[in-house]
Write a structure and sequence with these properties.
Structural class: mainly alpha
Shape: elongated
Order of helices and strands: HHHHHHHHHHH
Number of domains: 2
Number of helices: 11
Distance between the termini: 35 Å
Oligomer: single chain
Length: 174
Amino acid sequence: MRELTFRGFLMQYVKELSASGTLSIRSLAAEAEAGNHRLSAPLALYAAVSGKGALLSRSLGRSSAADEMRRIRVFFMSNDPERILNEGNAPRDCLKVWEAFLTAKNAAVRDKDLKEAIRKKVIQLKKCGNCSNYRIYTDLKLNPGNVNSWLKNGDGRKISCKNAELILDYVRSR
């Protein structure tokens, strides 16, 4: 799985925030000016990072949202947006977008640690009780290879956090 980039995150984030689910700068600019103000800072950052700042400026009308997006675009135009955001020297709305990116980027590490902690607890509970891997994947209707790979080898890629928690609840109830 590839590492999440800021540009990739912004593409996904802007799509999620828009009503249309598009990446068209013109459509997004019109939507932001029409009242979707949550879209303003992410859209301006997306335009700056993807090299579409000039198109954004041409697409904007005369509104407070348009003025804010122009200010953000100009702020990041001659600088490296990721460096500025990482240093914390950016407008507050842009820093919120950066924090959302960092949270999303670190989710994989956080999930890996959570799954490993759950795995250790499941193994400990299995030793105390009477529960086999076979019973776990059969009763919960999970993939046997994935459950065995996770419990025996610690391969966290084979199982979701949801299924890891499901297994823990099952073993606790036995």
